[in-house]
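Problem: given the chain below (395 residues), write out its structure.
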Amino acid sequence: MKTFEYKGFDSAGKVVRGLTEGLSVKHAREQLAASGILAERITSSGRRVRLQPQERAVFYRELSSLLRAGVPLLGALDIMLQSPELTGVRIVLAATRDGIREGRSLAQALSQASTSVGVFETAVVEAGEASGRLPEMLERCAAFLEEQDRVRERVQGALVYPAIVFTVGLVVAILMLGLLLPRAAAVLGNRAGDLPGLTRAMLGMGRGIARGWPVLLVLVFVAVLLCRRLLRRGSTWRLRFDRALFRIPGFGQGYRLLVNMRFARTLAILVGGGVSPIKGMMLAGRATGSVSVEADTETGADRVEHGTSLSDAIQAIGPLSGTLPGWVRVGEASGELERLLDSAARRFEEAWDRFLRRWMVVVEPLLIVLIGGFVLLVTLSVLLPILNLSQALGR
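Solution.
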């Protein structure tokens, strides 16, 4: 049996969509007709779709719960297809079930059903299937995705206020330079004598923006396209840019903490699932989101394969060479590498949270001061000619 997507009309003439099973398109159409649905279009559910991290986390967690309860894998997928909470992932569920029916493993079926399932999730599921700990590994994979989603939300939440302040400042600058200042200068005319240097500078800036904004927009658009082309994943420029991010004062420290946290957490999950340190190191490098760390971990994994210890290989990777190798060294010596990596990940997460709070305390007032300073300059450029005019009339 194969799963098909359909669009058609029910007996009341209402448009209906859904999934149905059949041996072929013809058989599926007959099945729908028998249930009172006139199928307009029937297609295979094998198209690959993208899923958000939260959707994948819910999928992994519910599948883990069903497997722990003793439900067979195909039976669990059948139950989940009827779940109202998983309506958005039904196509992926159906394609995964079809892949398993055709003889593929769960990891292979998942990776073919959705473009969102990356090498890390595939490796975790493979490790769970190979070790007989699939429910546990699915649960840990769900927890990891939820944690990464929380990290992303914290970053986005921290950037909301600065983005609002910056947008308001930009609007104020355009209004004051483009409307207020030119009108004030036109009203004053030559009655205030020679305009002060600050006023002339601000007027020049306003005229430049008014006349050159189309060219500026074109330049910005071209610059964005050029940057996207140069910084595409796998390019030399992207690698250089990523390495430079670690050297930026302030930002580089936060980026380093985030990379260490992701690397330690991912490696802990993979090692706990029975993945070899060599493969785990490469997959953990990819999970960091840093292309330079990813490239360095591939080199480090090759060194581990030729006899270097895991801690020494990590020590040779610049962004990971801080405290993480010490945790790994203790884990290797005690035989509790997974637990030590989990502890290290928690420490890095706490440090990253402190870093984020500390820098937001600095960035928010700094933006306000900068925008307030600009508004003050524009205000002075309007007031100075008025003061000059008042002094000229008073003589």
